[in-house]
Amino acid sequence: MTTIKQEDFIQSIADAFQFISYYHPKDFIDALDEALQKEQNPAAKDAITQILVNSRMCAEGKRPICQDTGIATVFLKIGMNVQWDAQMSVQEMVNEGVRRAYTHPDNVLRASVLADPAGKRINTKDNTPAVVHTEIVAGDKVEVICAAKGGGSENKSKLAMLNPSDSIVDWVLKTVPTMGAGWCPPGILGIGIGGTPEKAMLMAKESLMGHIDIHKLQDKAKSGAELSAVEQLRLEIYEKVNALGIGAQGLGGLTTVLDVKILDYPTHAAGKPVAMIPNCAATRHVEFELDGSGPAHLQAPSLEDWPDITYSPDNGKRVNVDTLTKEEVATWKTGDVLLLNGKILTGRDAAHKRLIDMLNKGEPLPVDFNNRIIYYVGPVDPVRDEVVGPAGPTTSTRMDKFTRQMLEQTGLLGMIGKSERGADTCKAIADNQAVYLMATGGAAYLVAKAIQSSKVLAFPELGMEAIYEFEVKDMPVTVAVDSKGQSVHAIAPKQWQAKIGIIPVEA
To answer: Which residues have a Cβ under 8 Å from the Cβ of 327 and sit 6 or more positions away?
Structure first.
């Protein structure tokens, strides 16, 4: 009989969520470095470099890899011989661990969890409650996996109830391009096959907790060893998804996924549930065991685990955003790297909703947007001598429904965000001779280093969703949609899909 003490369990959960906020798993670092070495598209190569450099910076500074520090997800396997020395329930203990982790004074993490999701959407302030999956198993240990799941990737989750004769590969290849780049590739696809709808989704999520081992599977195939149906499926999906040419951040390139993980379960004869969840470039999870001897010991990686690379955007064109005009913006082309200098505004979902409501009521806005650039970001709170915490871009398509009105009624000149814009938004950009710039998702700490000063201008009660003014120095961005409405995310993947030549490009 093993006794697990309440405090040991709580502290282990707290330590785990702090740990994964700033440490990538080594297998992910290795796989990303390999992708960097073989990538041929300069824009994708630049993005992967930023992600790797950011990862090392976070490990050194013990600050979050991404501004989206995720919703806490915990998988528990509790041995039937385990006894708890605790006054709290397992859910309560997990929540207390998450609370400690997310409010840690030396590394405050962004609280992203909202209560009353269909109503008032009130921030719980400490990222609780966690989502906990519990399995009772044989044994006398507690096995724990802690993962922080960000909105950009989770929001791209898919579920299909396929017919028994339908091709899973065809469904994946049809579906992945519809996910856009908001899940911050290169990452990992988790797929669950079988069971019932909710079981398939759970398996897709759980599969992502496995180690990256596609190379071992490739070697097994080359050796002539017999592969299971799932192994064959993993290899086929891995090859064909990469052949879509989506590439890092959707910029076009050779690597979109670093691995494909699959779990399956027996299912009803009349159907074939298939779920797919992507893991982003800020993949964050850790596993440990508790055996009653005390809290978990999490082994910190060595800095030598990261490749010896630096990021220097010297190929970028320096731009003064304080004197920016439509005439200058019109000279920029998709794929251009810019280094922004001057003062930019911030604002995302909640701020945009308020601004649009004010415009519709004829009320004056609290901020002048004329000829300004707005950055879609919800930064982490600063600690110590930081101006601002990690401040990477959020998924821009969430702001699409507000964009035309913002451009036409406020004089807004440009936007910075993550991933693609919709076709209607690209037309709105063209109609208003505006521009959309892309910062690299998964490089939040690196991006934040370009921010020299920060102050709240409006809606302070919204916390990280308030409107800030950032003064930036050499902030690296890429022109994603130019003033003619041409989108790199619409053009580049098809070009690279054609170059790779495995999957024909539809006219």
So the answer is: none
284 DSSP 8-state letter: -
Going from N- to C-terminal start, the domains of the chain cover 153-284, 317-492
- Nearest alpha carbon to residue 440 among 184, 179, 156: 184
Distance CA 431, CA 426 (A): 9
Tokens at 289, concatenated? 């065991």
* Helical packing angle, 90-102 and 6-22, nearest 10°: 40
Residues 6+ positions from 424 with CB-CB distance below 8 Å: 400, 404
Amino acid identity of residue 268, one-letter, is H
How many other CB atoms are there within 10 angstroms of residue 252's CB atom? 26
223 φ, ψ (degrees, to nearest 5): -75, -10
Give the separation between CA 298 and CA 285, rounded to whole angstroms.
12
In 3D space, the residue among 479, 417, 462, 385 whose CA is nearest the CA of residue 184 turns out to be: 417
Q: Which two tokens stand for residue 74?
A: 């915990």
For 248-304, write each residue's pLDDT tens digit. 999 999 999 999 999 999 999 999 999 999 999 888 999 999 999 999 999 999 999
**One-letter amino acid for residue 435 of the chain:** V
Its pTM stands at 0.94
Among candidates 343, 378, 360, which has minimal Cα distance to 464?
378
Task: List all residues 6 or more positions away from 250 whose beta carbon is below 8 Å from its beta carbon.
Answer: 180, 181, 185, 419, 420, 488, 489, 492, 493
> Which pair of tokens denotes residue 22?
């700033």
Reference 132, options 299, 13, 18, 289; nearest CA is: 13
* Three-class SS state of 411: coil
Is the dihedral angle over the CA atoms 305, 309, 310, 312 positive or is it negative? negative
Return d(Cα 470, Cα 377) in angstroms, integer: 11
Q: How far from 178 is each of 26, 44, 192, 249, 444, CA to CA, in Å?
A: 30, 19, 19, 14, 25
Q: How many CB atoms lie within 10 A of CB 356?
A: 15
Apex 160 CA angle, 169 and 129, nearest 5: 120
Question: What is the spatial order of strands in the sheet that 285-290 belongs to?
Answer: 131-137, 71-79, 142-149, 285-290
State which H helix or E strand residue 428 sits in: helix 423-431
Q: What is the pLDDT of residues 307-328, one digit of tens each?
A: 999 988 777 899 999 999 999 9
User: What fold is seen in the domain 317-492?
Assistant: fumarase (3.20.130)
